[in-house]
Amino acid sequence: IREGDQLIEAKLTSGNAEVLIAARDGKAIRFNESTVRPIGRVGAGVRGISIEDGDEVVGMICVEPDSKQDVLVLSENGYGKRTDLDEYRITNRGGKGVKTINITEKTGKLISIQAVTDDNDLMIINRSGLTIRTAVGQIRLAGRATQGVRIINLREGDAIASVMAVPAAGEEEEVQPAEGVETGGETPGTAPAEE
Q: How far apart are CA 115 and CA 98, in angstroms?
């Protein structure tokens, strides 16, 4: 790995998966993993997506051809959406990609990309230490170039730190503050609000 670079994701795949890589400025690229040639353990790898100076990759998902998974993206200010995989055309790896979310001052930068179905919940951890669990089924499908809807309400100065898709728990859980975090003021909600 070059100086200043870091590994952020590794996935186990079948050899036929579609790979989507997303960057903070709202672009994502889709290509078939067969276009990535096998390389030795210490090799530097091949380029997946070309990004501008100051941009960085936020994540990668691998979706099998017969999967019913959607692409879910979430921005640091709590906006997100689900998009059908077919809205992302297959391109050559190493390109600049296509818009996956419309980044604005209101939405903030892209923070996460996940492969999801209605059988998933989202676990969202804020920088302030709050953990929120919400059902993916509450998030409606939207086009690639839209900004999405508000998934959670954030306090002034807070932002999303981490997101993970997990199996659905059945009943929605309450907001659980991290140890030592005060919960006064408005409680972040889990229901998406149309914007």
A: 17
Q: What is the DSSP letter of 129?
A: S
Radius of gyration for the alpha carbons in the chain, expressed in angstroms and rounded: 17
Query: Does residue 100 contact residue 144 with C-beta atoms inside 8 Å?
Result: yes
pTM: 0.80
Q: What percent of the chain is helix, strand and coil (3-state, nearest 5)?
A: 5, 35, 65
CATH code for the domain in which residue 83 is found: 2.120.10.90
Q: What is the pLDDT of residue 185?
A: 44
Compute CA 53 distance to the chain's CA centroid, rounded to the nearest angstrom: 21
- Residue 154's nearest CA partner among 183, 108, 187 is 187
pLDDT-flagged residues of the chain (< 50):
172, 181-195
Alpha carbons 166 and 47: distance in angstroms, whole number: 29
Integer Cα distance of 31 and 120 in angstroms = 24
Pairwise CA distance, residues 132 & 25, whole Å: 25
In a domain, 7, yes or no: no
Range of the domain at 117: 18-167
